[in-house]
Design a protein that fits this description.
The chain is α+β, with helices and mostly antiparallel strands and 107 residues long. The chain is built from 3 helices and 4 strands; from the N terminus they run αββββαα. The protein has one domain: Roll (Nuclear Transport Factor 2, Chain: A). A hairpin with a 3-residue loop joins β1 and β2. The radius of gyration is 16 Å and the shape is elongated.
């Protein structure tokens, strides 16, 4: 977690884009994003926006009131595109993603 705090000193926001259904299972599409203004695992910051999209399913406690809590969360997203964006600019990340496994093309 500390590596994300260092890489994204202004934060790594999450934005809910669409909600597909309501309790007790809440499925939604999200975007997670921030500006890489600090180093990440020895790679220098590039100052560009890093983002990824995904879908999440929250499994909510049986009653929906002020004591409601999420019992389980399942996240689904394309990990390769997200990771390559840490090591390159958005344009080169798009090219690497189009060519196949982006982690194999990181310098």
């Amino acid at each position: 977690m500390l590596m994300f705090l260092t890489a994204f000193p202004r934060g790594f926001a999450i934005e809910v884009l669409d909600v597909y259904n309501g309790p007790p299972r809440v499925a939604f599409k999200f975007r997670h994003w921030g500006y890489m203004e600090g180093p990440f695992k020895g790679h220098p910051p590039h100052g560009q926006r890093v983002e990824f999209f995904g879908v999440c399913v929250f499994h909510i406690s049986s009653t929906v009131d002020e004591d409601t809590w999420v019992e389980k969360a399942e996240y689904f997203y394309e990990c390769g595109n997200f990771l390559v964006s840490f090591f390159s600019t958005p344009a080169s990340a798009a090219v690497a993603s189009a060519l196949g496994c982006p982690l194999m093309r990181v310098n």
